[in-house]
Design a protein that fits this description.
By secondary structure, this protein is an alpha+beta fold. Strands 1, 2, 3, 5, 6, 7, 10 and 11 form an 8-stranded mixed sheet that branches. A hairpin with a 5-residue loop joins strand 12 and strand 13. The chain has one domain: Alpha-Beta Complex (Fumarylacetoacetate hydrolase, domain 2), CATH 3.90.850.10.
Amino acid sequence: MALVGYERERLDLIRANRNKPRADYLSDRGRLIHGPTPPGGSKPSPRESDLSPEEVEEVLELISTGRKTRTPVVMPERLRARSWKSMEEVILRLEYSLGWEGAGWKVGAASLDVRKAENIPSPSPGRLFVRSIMNSPAEVPSEFFVNYRLCECEFAFQLGQDFPVRDKEYSESDIRAGIEYLAPVIEIGDSVFEDWYSLSGYFGGMYDNAGGAAFVIGNKVKDWMEIDLPNSNLDLYVNDYYIKSGKGFQAMGHPVTSLTWMVNWVRERGRAVYAGEWVSTGTCTGHCFVQVGDLVSVDFADLGLVEARFI
């Protein structure tokens, strides 16, 4: 892909800064503003029983009110159910409680490193919303966030055909045949609950749409089949300081494997995935926390640049 103009200039600049010493306020997790609990430091909630139907309604109201009013909330101890079944029930209903139009799906914690940091047993699904999808370079407004701006650098696919509900699972070959575009993206997480790495003790971030809040899309690529996605490199910068790198294999070994998992997860729960929807396949660079005023730039090599400035 020929890169020109602003994109070419920005890539030349950040690549020239690749070995520049990092600013003191930055770490390999960006700004250390995730709260007092360290990665992997969550304490499992003693409640493992499922939420009752009434409790599910209560959690939905709590999260949707916090999201819509941009107000931090506290999950009552009695509702801190470490139940994957209850989390999935909330996820599948949250978009209706919010009243936001869906635009696709995201895979949270696709990489083993993230699952270890968050003490969770499985990748976690979430919704992408029409209201917060932007094209790069993007100015990302504060209206999409409550507590955090957690940047994850990923590969995403836009589908060119429907994947309706059926008994038989979709194979990777089925899924590949239905892909319209590949794109490098920044998926941006948030939660109404505070102290990010404590939340997995009761699956708090998972209940809250697996953190999904905003989505910035880079160059769309039609002819992607010959790209070696597992070995595709990406470099993450904040304010032109190099933070870290990742590769596509960190999304379940291959981004298409992650995409296939997501489509089948939706299928198994009686819902279709539609042509035109996006599926983001999980972070290849772990977590990077930023704040208002920061510029996040991701060098996806031949796939180009994805940038998000937080305003």
